[in-house]
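Hi P.,

Sorry for the delay on this. The queue was packed all week, but I finally got your sequence through. Input first:
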Amino acid sequence: MRPPCGQPSHRPLPTWQHGGVTAATHSSLFPQVPESADAVLDGLDPEQREVATALHGPVCVLAGAGTGKTRAITHRIAYGVRAGILQPTSVLAVTFTNRAAGEMRGRLRQLGAGGVQARTFHSAALRQLQYFWPKAVGGDLPRLVERKVQLVAEAAARCRIRLDRNELRDVTSEIEWSKVTQTVPADYPAVVAKTQRDAPRDPAEISQIYAMYEQLKRDRSVIDFEDVLLLTVAILQDRHDIADHVRRQYQHFVVDEYQDVSPLQQRLLDLWLGDRDTLCVVGDASQTIYSFTGATPDHLLNFRTRHPNATVVKLVRDYRSTPQVVHLANGLLGQARGRAAEHRLELVSQREPGPEPAYTEYADEPAEAEGTARRVRDLIAAGVPAGEIAVLYRVNSQSEVYEQALADAGVPYQLRGAERFFERAEVREAGVALRGAARAGGNDSLLDDAEGLSAEVRAVLSTKGWTTEPPAGSGAVRDRWESLAALVRLAEDFEQAKPDATLSDLVAELDERAAAQHAPTVQGVTLASLHSAKGLEWDAVFLVGLTEGMMPITYAKTDEQIEEERRLLYVGVTRARLHLSLSWSLSRSPGGRAGRRPSRFLNGLRPGSVALGARGAAGGGGGIERGIGRIARRGTRGPARCRVCGKTLTDAGEMKLMRCDDCPSDMDEALYERLRDWRAVRAKEIGQPAYCVFTDKTLMAIAEAVPGSAGELAGISGVGARKLDRFGTAVLAMCAGETVEEGAGDAVDEV
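Then the structure:
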């Protein structure tokens, strides 16, 4: 009989955290340098020791979260150096961040292996490029452009393509992605189509800008960050004498976080190696979360194919997290699909048991934030340092409500990987616009057709990039929209709390909130996105906002994108050492329609839910809790499926229509046009934008379903009780082919 998901199918490995073996993630600030090579191996568990002593031939270390991979590879290098097998200056260890490289150098010094080069790919390549450029090309190395945005802006202007600041940032990111994936400008549109990548602009336009950007760099004799790798690759390919020089210098290579290697970095690594196999790679395919930057786990997954004689070591002893946290992490990956999932590692906790993960359902987002802040405050009161607590969310725009809730609770916090909400450029710009509109009052023509505070705010922010529907894909444009949408939601909530509030009142409220959060930064609870939390860990982690549409994110549509979202949640879970809380809310604002569902990734893990299409049974410990004022949870629903082809739907608009966008529609076109005309009249009468009556997608859903009763109409996403009561009679009359007088919007009885 198969054991519960998350539990080992074999006998538990002995605990190595005691009896001379230290935890993988904690060490003394000033440890003693080991007296001998053998002493370097002291304190390693059997698998870590196997890594440390495998000094010949290709080595692949598959290391799960919290298993001490950095410890294993630094002890490997140190053991080789101390035993006289490796010369310190002949070893090059590469990783992806300066922080990780610095940590590796520090550990090597503590182990008596100073002199080993530990660098990022770019840092190592730049040193080689600076040294060999005069010999390979002649003259001085072209100046390195640290910020390419200005050059991209000029390239766009020369192509007569207008980009706002956020589009500029996104196009710059696309150029970077193209270069690390070795995509030339002419091929960019075809590659985007083939990979189903969400381009921030028309791919043909980006291709134009990319080509002009490259031309400008050539004209001005400057290079960018990606050129450092490209030029180093070119020199090593063309000049065999230089390649031989580098290979004589570096005899042994170690690559950390190998699942994040891009095609360009792999190409450089191959040139460094030549025909040798003195390579050790370390990675975990289940932690691949940066594919949007060009990272791919394929090189890790194909390592044994390229190197059939490789030594493969799996590190699965988790020294970071309790059995309860590890159980959940294993269960999460147990439902994964795809190639990376086939190579997943089942972790075995080496820690003493701890509390079960807490699953909490809230009525709305403010209640979720307030409940989280209360739990954080309770943990601090119980002795958990504020700096050992983190609140992790999917997108940075979610931070504002948690910033406010923690501030209201008197809990210090710090933001990681993002500006404070009120310090974001788009939020400051929006504040200036709202302040100007408030001063102008009735003299601002922009507000002529807006009735009510929230309508005024929407009108003002529409000039700054806010729209009724979010932009497709991710990136800076989406981030900007999310920030502005957060301000719109705040205005709606403020108006609901204070129906007579004016735009000036809202501006004063925003100023107060901003001032309260501009206090000096203190050591406190970390607020961070899941992406920026990679590589970190805390005693207590709160994973918030775990609803469909946010986890997985709405724009994750392909199977590969959905699986990367699952891995992102896995990374979040494995950041926790002891306390883990997972929460979601059923509506956005108080009193709103409770139409949200918990993330599909929690199916079969949270109590009372069932895993749909899981590869294995999932156990899921812990209990589900409810906070003060929270509403009862409705029965768990399965995923929405297209009524035409049966495919699982993830996009909010598709779920509203209950079909894929590209599946044939059976919409009554004439009814749809009548509904649009009626909506325009009603919107004008009530002084609200048309979407406040019904969105286009809702009208399409109505025209496709052609409901014949109030019950059928209410079953359409976007038709809540309030709109059913207000507009139901007119809509049902139109569906029945009846003529509706202008202004019709009487109540309809429930059926």
